[in-house]
Specification:
about 180 residues; mainly beta; 8-stranded antiparallel beta barrel; about 15% helix; about 55% strand
């Protein structure tokens, strides 16, 4: 039930962000020439920091992102030390190609790879491919949702089509993230 409520909340939030972005579009008088392309599609937003996660239990945590305009790259860094158990750590890197861009949202396809060292004898590699939607709630803060195919290999072999909700159960809306861009 918690997964369903979170999914409905994210869809509503992304829908409201896209709706407000379309409401802000203004027409340019013909005497001024054709309007220029959307800022996110040409110049990019630069360096950003936030939180992100890969699908199917891959690395999730502090994220550094770079938006170059036609594509963006994001990374995830995971580390934990629970005392007597061995420390766990992981790193993920994803590339997203923007298929459609607007001033306050974009739709991307891409994928990535993640590595996690869980225990002394357990290493996991995640290979993700899918689609991502980013909605800019203000000019430099983006909420993202991604879904797709995840292949898990290494010491744990599995695959999943759909994504993973924050509670760890399979969900239709996939992973979520947030980034602040230093424009």
């Amino acid at each position: 039930m918690r997964t369903f409520i979170l999914s409905v909340f994210m869809v509503t939030f992304l829908w409201l962000g896209a709706r407000s972005a379309t409401a802000q579009v203004t027409e340019v008088p013909p005497s001024l020439g054709a309007p220029s392309a959307a800022p996110s599609s040409m110049t990019g937003r630069g360096l950003g920091v936030g939180w992100g996660s890969m699908m199917f239990g891959g690395p999730a945590g502090v994220s550094v992102a770079y938006d170059a305009g036609q594509f963006h790259i994001d990374s995830m860094l995971f580390a934990r030390d629970l005392g007597p158990t061995p420390a766990s750590y992981g790193l993920g890197l994803r590339f997203w190609w923007h298929l459609f861009s607007a001033s306050a949202a974009d739709l991307s396809v891409g994928g990535g790879i993640g590595f996690m060292h869980i225990t002394k004898n357990t290493d996991i590699v995640n290979i993700d491919a899918g689609a991502q939607i980013r909605a800019f709630i203000v000019s430099n803060v983006a909420l993202s949702a991604a879904s797709g195919l995840s292949i898990v290999t290494g010491d744990a072999d599995a695959w999943q089509l759909g994504g993973q909700s924050p509670t760890g159960t399979a969900g239709i809306f996939g992973t979520i993230g947030i980034h602040y861009y230093f424009q």
